Amino acid sequence: MDLKLYDTLTRGKRPFRPLDPGNVRMYVCGPTVYDFAHIGNARPVIVFDVLFRLLRHIYGAEHVTYVRNITDVDDKINARAAEDYPGLPLNEAIRKVTATTDQQFHDDVAALGCLPPSFEPRATEHIAEMRTLIERLVASGNAYVAEDNVLFSVPSDPDYGQLSKRPLDEMIAGARVEVAPYKRDPRDFVLWKPSKLGEPAWPSPCGITAPGRPGWHIECSAMSWKYLGETFDVHGGGIDLVFPHHEDEIAQSRCAFHTPMMANYWMHNGYLQVEGEKMSKSLGNFVTIRDLLKDWPGEVVRLAMLQTHYRQPMNWTLAGLSEAQKALDQWYALTGDLAPGLLCADALDGLADDLNTPKVLAALHELRGEASKGSRPAAACLKASAQLLGLLQKTPADWSAFRPASIVVDESKVIGLVQARNAARARKDWKESDRIRDELAKMNIELKDTPQSTTWSYALKAADLTTGKPSIGAPDLTVRKSSVDNELPSGTKGRNVKS
Question: 4-272 architecture in CATH?
Answer without folding.
Answer: 3-Layer(aba) Sandwich (3.40)
